[in-house]
Amino acid sequence: MPTPPPLPGADFFAVEQLLVPSERAKLAALRGFLAAEVAPYAVDWWNNASFPAQILPALAELGLSSMAQQGYSHLFAGLVIAEMTKVDTSLATFFLVHHDLFVESLHQFGSQEQQERLLDDALKLRITGAFALTEPDHGSDVAGGMATTATRAGDGWILNGAKRWIGNGTFCDYMLLWARDTADGAVRGFILDASLPGVRRTRIENKIALRTVQNADIVLDGVRVPERDRFAGINSFQDTNQLLLGSRLMVAWQAVGQQLAAFEAARDYAVERRQFGKPLASFQLIQTQLTEMLGNATASMAMMVRVAQLQEQGGAGMAQVALAKAQTTALMRRTVSLGRGILGGNGILPEYRMAKIFADAEAIYTYEGSHEINSLIVGRAITGLSAIV
Fold first, then answer.
1. For 211-258, how does the pLDDT look when each residue is reduced to its tens digit (9 = 90+)?
2. Tens digit of pLDDT for each residue in 354-372?
């Protein structure tokens, strides 16, 4: 009996073929690494809330840090994040925090001395970074409500305050930390050595999403930071808009990857699982649900391909990025919900992958601008009226 042809992948419209050959080869190398070093273990890491620091040297060897700085296309950068997310959302989140926020901030805002001191080690993951912005009482309003303070003292600064939900925060070597200057109220950025006296880090326990990511509460009590560790290129919160814009786009790509994962997990299960004497996938309702999942993923990917084209042409605007993040994550929520339903009771067990995919989607829906805040950014752009106080 002839072997049936392989089923089509989740990239139903062959978006990957838009990449140049060298980018396709690099994406294939990433896929091989993820299949060998991540996919077999990701559920256990998630269940145990443990971070796989042992794989960082091999991840660094792929040479995917600072993709824009290396001349890769924006589409390639997005597909890298989608591919990582498809296998393990937590690993993709670590990568985004370290590379797209900490390393990219060194590129964009670091002095020559700061870059010479830290950049090579950060690129090669010999040191790891975090992005300390959110606070216990300030999330969406942190730009205007930031309570962490920086006070000039001689040839340095004294930092006081608290940060919350800081990814990589329990183990990172350095953080890009944001604080308000007590002299003039300006928001400033600092390269905070996490081992300094007065820095206290506590892991946030019992999360239902991104369990592998080591989120931390950070308390700063009279931490002394030298002037050389103030980010030379940051003089206000507005200086980092492009940095935050880029990270928000990458989270929208995570929403694509999460849907690709959900579709493949649900389709594979439905093809193999038998009910009423035949494959679950042979039922009309299941096929309709799988088609909707694939349609949502494909629509999200198509939107992100166009955003990548706009980036190549000079950049996407804040409202365009906000719409992309809001729309892809809304579709993602529907997609992972359908997938979890297809697996029935098995859909709440992590070993079937779908429970992890379903739970991790909730974090993507919220971070890098909640769905509601992004919707209001778009609303302001299309009406000329702001609903954000």
1. 999 999 999 999 999 999 999 888 888 877 777 888 899 999 999 999
2. 999 999 999 999 998 899 9
Tell me how far apart the alpha carbons of residues 333 and 255 are, in angstroms, rounded to a whole number: 9
Domain assignment present for 23: yes
Mean pLDDT of the chain: 94
Question: For the stretch 272-295, what's the b/e string if a residue is b when 16 or more beta carbons lie within 10 angstroms of its beta carbon?
Answer: eeeeeeeebbeeeebeebbeebbe
* Cβ pair 157, 113 in contact under 8 A: no
Task: Clarify whether residues 300 and 233 are in a common domain.
Answer: no
Which residue, among 164, 218, 157, has the nearest Cα to 182 in the 3D structure?
A: 157
Residue 315, both tokens: 């950049």
* Pair (302, 256) in one structural domain: yes
Q: In terms of residues, how long is the chain? A: 389
Distance CA 250, CA 78 (A): 6
Residue 111 sits in the same domain as residue 142: no
Residue 38 three-state SS? coil
Cβ pair 206, 359 in contact under 8 A: no
Residue 72 CA to residue 77 CA, distance in Å, equals 7
